[in-house]
Specification:
heterodimer; A: alpha/beta; Rossmann fold; six-stranded mixed beta sheet; four-stranded antiparallel beta sheet; 7 helices; 10 strands; 29% strand; B: alpha+beta; 2 domains; six-stranded mixed β-barrel; 12 strands
């Protein structure tokens, strides 16, 4: 489903070239639950951004659902992102002036889906992620765990091929973090593909497939 | 993204930061209000002048002694050098034209008017019976000067309402006698109140037969001749005929100035329209200032909303959608400001109307369209730079910062 071959990503910092990704080859199958761990600066987030089509590799090919998305232009990338990728961020990134329901609805609004079609899907999402009684609250009236639940529901709004979570528990206490992980794992149980970036070994070890990155290269790929 | 959703999204932003919204509405509102108010004043002045000319009478052609090369000046200002006087015979000859319905020769002078011990200096106008028809004036009491040979003088006069009230108070003026210089005139009529028209207040004048004025002021030369054309279409022919008749009578010299009401009116109309346009344009500068304010506010918004823009991109918004979202926001703000401005401008117009009821202040239709349109276009133009900056934002960088 996701196939990366020879992915290179180089940043120019000052006059030095920093190799964030060096020749990454990776295949992720539908329904995988996978974590990427590694020290900071090891390229985990860059890999996530490349997979999420927010960043373009300098070299290599990326096939998503059988389609080569390496050379697409910005608008086409936006469209693929909208339909196939769901993001969950460390800092939730909810739009502060919109209610929880409006935040969940946002991807469908951007995709231009008719309100009559959005409504039942929104109700379903709110119910699925236990947000019905929080639907009309704004992010500043929600707890961290609730915010992340809203973010996960938003990521799932378009039924993406893969959910990319960048340190989803990094901004939460241990207990809430466990709760949010349970929610993410429910996505996986329902057949979704989940890719998790974390530096917390306890969180990372929950995944069925664990990648380890050092200096922009994948050095370990364990399955259990 | 659907249009309604785009609008709703922009509306959320506008509603979400009331302080910012208020500031922009204020700036845009002031700009639009200034344009509406200033053009209302200009248009009011124009309509005032147009109405004043209209009240002179219809289909009017004015003949002045002397030739002026200046086109379209005010009749009162024209004091041409007169090689040959314009006399009553010239005026009567004008009746030969088929395009002319009536004529009214005028002699104007200042007279020392007395009733008993009361005396007053007023303008005295010598004219003929047709004057009242040519000028479209009404009588309040009695009748106008009698018909008859304009060369014959009868000792009668017609007075304005103000003259009547000043000389007679509440007493009946009709049938009384008054003296002008060493001559006596019986009052046969009082003019209806008409007010000022072009600096000439008919409420303050005394009208006597032409021949009497000739004797009073000891002159044969006419101040001017008012000619009424048979219809609006005939004005041009009447003008040609008048020039030709006078030229023939004055041994081939074109020594009179002929002004048609239309020409004067058109000139004033042009001047005042241009003036209104100019002051409207000056007021529109404030719209440009408001536009710059919008640009600054939007630039700040792009910086403040970096994370949100990054998020929208991550959720699949195209650069175009983000550009449109910012433009929609700007248009909403501009429309709100324009509505506010038009309302305030009309309010200012109503206040001006209360203060000066004689001048028909009103915003010209083009200003009511142009001011809001300029506001919207300015807002859009000035938002393009910030909106493009937002659309080009790199989502990875936008999201990475807290």
């Amino acid at each position: 489903m996701i196939r990366l071959a020879g992915i290179e990503r180089t940043f120019i910092v000052g006059e030095e070239a920093v190799h964030a990704l060096r020749g990454v080859n990776l295949e992720i199958a539908q329904g995988d639950y996978l974590s990427i761990m590694g020290p900071s600066g090891s390229g985990k987030s860059t890999l996530l951004n490349v997979i999420g089509l927010l960043d373009r590799p300098n070299a290599g090919t990326y096939k998503l659902d059988g389609r080569d998305v390496t050379g697409l232009d910005d608008d086409e990338l936006a469209r693929v992102r909208r339909e196939k990728i769901g993001f969950v961020f460390q800092f939730f990134h909810l739009v502060p002036r919109l209610t929880a329901a409006q935040n969940v609805e946002l991807p469908m609004v951007l995709a231009g889906i008719d309100p009559s079609a959005r409504k039942p899907r929104l109700a379903q999402l709110l119910a699925e992620y236990g947000l019905e009684d929080r639907a009309r609250h704004r992010p500043d009236q929600l707890s961290g765990g609730q915010c992340q639940r809203v973010a996960i529901a938003r990521a799932m709004a378009m039924n993406p091929s893969v959910v990319l979570a960048d340190e989803p528990t990094g901004n939460l206490d241990r207990h809430t973090g466990q709760e949010v992980m349970a929610v993410l794992e429910r996505v996986h149980h329902n057949g979704g593909t989940v890719l998790l970036v974390t530096h917390d070994p306890e969180i990372g070890s929950r995944a069925h497939r664990r990648l380890r990155m050092i200096d922009g290269a994948v050095v370990a790929d364990e399955r259990s | 993204m659907r249009g309604a959703d785009l609008l709703n999204f922009a509306w959320q932003v506008v509603r979400g930061s009331p302080g910012r919204t208020f500031l922009i509405l204020l700036a845009m509102g002031i700009g639009v209000a200034a344009v509406v108010a200033v053009t209302s004043l200009g248009e009011g002045a124009r309509l005032y002048v147009v109405n004043q000319f209209g009240s002179l009478g219809t289909n009017l052609v004015i003949v002045l002694p002397g030739r002026s090369e200046t086109a379209g000046a005010m009749p009162g200002v024209l004091v041409g050098k007169t090689p040959r006087d314009l006399v009553l015979e010239d005026a009567l000859a004008l009746k030969r034209s088929h395009a002319v319905r009536r004529i009214a020769p005028l002699i104007v002078g200042a007279g020392d008017v007395r009733v008993g011990a009361l005396r007053r200096e007023t303008p005295v106008v010598g004219t003929t019976a047709d004057f009242i028809e040519v000028r479209r004036m009404e009588m309040a009491q009695g009748r106008f000067l009698p018909e008859g040979d304009p060369r014959q003088s009868q000792p009668v006069c017609v007075i304005g309402t103000k003259v009547a009230s000043e000389l007679f108070g509440t007493r009946q003026a009709l049938g009384e006698w008054l003296r002008i210089g060493d001559r006596r005139f019986r009052i046969v009529g009082v003019l209806a109140r008409q007010g000022e028209s072009l600096g000439f207040n008919t409420d303050e004048i005394v009208i006597v037969p032409l021949a009497a004025a000739q004797a009073l002021f000891n002159t044969e030369s006419l101040f001017r001749v008012l000619v009424e054309a048979k219809s609006r279409e005939q004005i041009a022919y009447a003008r040609e005929d008048v020039e030709e008749i006078i030229r023939l009578r004055h041994e081939g010299e074109r020594d009179v100035t002929v002004i048609t009401q239309d020409a004067v009116l058109a000139t004033f109309d042009r001047i005042l329209r241009a003036l209104t346009l100019a002051v409207g344009g000056i007021a529109a500068i404030s719209l440009a200032v408001a536009g710059i304010l919008i640009m600054n506010v939007m630039l700040i918004a792009v910086t403040q909303r970096r994370r949100e823009i990054g998020l929208l991109k991550a959720l699949g918004a195209t650069g175009r959608q983000i550009l449109l979202a910012f433009l929609t926001e700007a248009v909403l703000l501009a429309l709100g400001g324009a509505a506010l401005g038009v309302a305030v401008g009309q309010l200012a117009r109503n206040v001006a109307l209360q203060l000066y009821p004689a001048i028909p202040f009103q915003a010209p239709w083009w200003a009511l369209i142009a001011a809001p349109a300029t506001a919207v276009i300015t807002a859009m133009l000035f938002t393009i730079v910030p909106a493009r900056r937002a659309a080009r934002l790199d989502p990875v960088q936008a999201l990475s910062r807290r």
